[in-house]
Amino acid sequence: MKLRKIVLAAVAAGLLAAIAGCKEKAPDQIRIAMVVKNLGNGFFDAAHTGARDAAKELKNVEIIYTGPTTPSAEGQIEIINSLISQKVNAIVISANDPNALVPITKKAMARGIKVISFDSGLAPEGRLMQLNPSNADLIGEKQIQMAADAIGGQGEIAILSASAQATNQNIWIGVMKKTLEKPEYAKMKLVATVYGDDQSDKSYREAIGLLRSNPHLKAIIAPTTVGINAASKAVVDEHLVGKVFVTGLGLPSEMAGHVKSGAVREFAIWNPIDLGYAATYAAYDFVKNQPTARPGGSISAGRMGSIAIDDKGEGAMAPPFTYDRGNVDKFSKIF
Ligand code: RAM
Question: Whose Cα sits closest to atom 4 in ligand 1?
């Protein structure tokens, strides 16, 4: 009897060890690192949720979610160096600089790691593909149009952006400036562009600075979820609700209160969960060497369907959605 117990215990222990061993090795496991601009940003937390959703569907995919504490290229370079040593299969990055990261992502690709950028892009030579949330012209024009609507098409406006090197914000600012040249916006004047580095406190200070040094300011456009939140708070704290309007790109969950306070009438954004989800699928397709995963081809992005990759290696998701008093509460439960 005693012997039987010992044998049974030994068999059970062996089985457990075998299971544990399997888990460690997991030969088919694909490791996809999502490197974001910085940690602690609700937008990227939502993208992470999407990445995890995709990983669950794809099976055998592990997501390593990482990023520097403040949005710098140096911080991301350090992280990528470590991901190269860890031999991850793919890196999905929202870049803090289009060019500064290219040497390190090239090194990663030379070691067989599939690098794709999403949200904020890398220069073409530094990645296999860039997944844009939407068309850049649409995003830029939309923000000018929302500002014009809020201030009756005339007056001084300013931009509060993320970091000065951010690829995505700089492209959108370029489009905004071009859009302002159109005759219908002739009475709107861009008086300043400042950078809050996607840090709440710095963005808040920059917004206060804009309000105090531009007494005739009518609108602040913040093409960043961190900036729009901070600028709205600054307008409320400076008792300027109704005099200065904030608009741009925000998360409904962070902006609902500001819409109610009147600091914001309308703002826009795409679905960051879907963006992180599709970017993960894109990385998976490249890891699996899918024949269509190439410029001029497409990626298959699960519930998001197929996304075309243009000749420059870029793909884009859906147009941004607009939020106001009527729908902000509903969406604030999602992202
Ligand atoms: C911030 C980041 C991100 C941008 C959004 C709109 O969260 O800068 O890159 O896409 O705003």
Answer: 224
